[in-house]
Amino acid sequence: xxxxxxxxxxxxxxxxxxxxxxxxxxxxxxxxxxxxxxxxxxxxxxxxxxxxxxxxxxxxxxxxxxxxxxxxxxxxxxxxxxxxxxxxxxxxxxxxxxxxxxxxxxxxxxxxxxxxxxxxxxxxxxxxxxxxxxxxxxxxxxxxxxxxxxxxxxxxxxxxxxxxxxxxxxxxxxxxxxxxxxxxxxxxxxxxxxxxxxxxxxxxxxxxxxxxxxxxxxxxxxxxxxxxxxxxxxxxxxxxxxxxxxxxxxxxxxxxxxxxxxxxxxxxxxxxxxxxxxxxxxxxxxxxxxxxxxxx
Length: 296
Known about the structure:
- The protein is built from 12 helices and 10 strands.
- It is of the alpha/beta class.
- The longest helix is centred in the first third of the chain and has 20 residues, at about 35-55.
- It is globular.
């Protein structure tokens, strides 16, 4: 594998493109918005500078990484002759199905189609293509340049060959791939999201405040950040979407999203991306500041 295309230039997309480019792959970063692509390149450069400051890479490696990146606003031009496409668009089933149907039509017959979905069925996505054996999940963790895990999800028809290729490719990115099967939430979010949801319920029911809940999990369970802070980083809208997938896919009421989470998303409080969630993210300080609505 040499040529990679990444669909979507948001947080996950630009992170995935960054990692592939840094490891010597020719990367096409594709987004319908030219402004979004410009912001993505600026983010990648900023993150490379951070790596230089930490002495993880050199200035020459930064320049080499940036040279490996090419941006496209037209999907067909961006995926021409690529060996692998990694889709990192919004976590929306209809959108992903539309993207994969189109990719199947315009990509070469040997191109592997991967999705960075955190919960949507790989089998369902593969079913809209004529290459279900070459469709697979590559669930990177955020922030992609830092986090080591890649959850590699096999759809019902994903071939052993495709799985082996993606597992070995992940290792070449200095990641640790873990193979899992295609069930709602896979492993990461099937375990993580109920914990986040229970933390929100604990707040909703008045068991404890935002800081208290996060402190218990950080100091008592050795988590690097509390579940409410993590939810803000993931995006409360994304958490809600994943919980809906779990609830609908597994049919168990324990996965039903907390009403507080539903209301926050409907009100536009989505965490870091919107500037407010359980914490305020527009306060200009590195210290955590609990959102006004949750202050005692």
